[in-house]
Amino acid sequence: MTEKDQLKNNFNSLSQKKLELESKVTSLNLCGSGFFFISSELKSWSESRQFCRDGGGDLIIINTAEKQRRISSLVKERVWIGLSDIETEGIMKWVDNSTLKQGFWFKGEPNNYVTDEDCIEVMPTKDPVNNWNDLPCSEKRKGICEN
Prior knowledge:
The chain has helices spanning 2-24, 45-54, 65-74; strands at 29-31, 34-38, 58-59, 79-84, 93-94, 119-122, 132-135, 142-146. By secondary structure, the protein is α+β, with helices and mostly antiparallel strands.
């Protein structure tokens, strides 16, 4: 009986740990040679980037329409991506320091509507391809990371 109770306790403990991990990693999917995941907590753009880097990656770089569609179909809420014009206003750069070649902007974006809208989010409720929005980096969003 004692052995059965111990096994039951171990099972319950592992089940709890599994739930904790599932809540921390919202989405996992193969994407190119790596994978991506979405943080479970709302953070500023910089905090989201640090979260990704702590996990061995960085905020996602979206440089094809196919990847843009894929990301838009998987995220259910607004998320940070690895694009900003923090260094120089009007010059969008990815987290790997490459400049933006093709954007997937929502109509009228980027517009710097609120002063210093330097960081970019995906808005999945909008058009599945053209749904990027600029907003202040201090806003709280989940981040989508890529390894």
